[in-house]
Amino acid sequence: MIEFERTKELAKKRKMSLLEVNDKAGLGKRSIYNWKNRKPGIMALIAVARVLHTSVDYLSGETDDPIPHNQESIRLEDDLPHSYRGYPVPERYLNIVRDLMEHDIQERENQG
């Protein structure tokens, strides 16, 4: 099944064994190996996706992009107060993030 193959592939890229992924996801003994013959439950897929820093959609074959994309975007241009773990984010930190993002965006545009 595709879930097993993609989990195996990502685990290898992350230098993790399937048993290690299985344990970190808190699944039953050798659960991931059972995915060779039967579809995993959604809760197991969610747990494994978190461990492998990917999406359930990728593991289940709904997308070929292993990088999860958050549809919600934070607009740093807004005048809204930003916080991290309950503390206000200083404007100088936001400026650093803006500069880093601009650099990355320009780099991607130059490559493509």
From TrEMBL:
Organism this protein belongs to: Lactobacillus colini
Kindly give the Gene3D superfamilies that the UniProt entry links to this protein: lambda repressor-like DNA-binding domains
For this entry, the protein name equals Transcriptional regulator with XRE-family HTH domain
Stored InterPro entries: Cro/C1-type_HTH, Lambda_DNA-bd_dom_sf
Every HTH cro/C1-type domain range: 8-59
Matches recorded under PROSITE patterns: HTH_CROC1
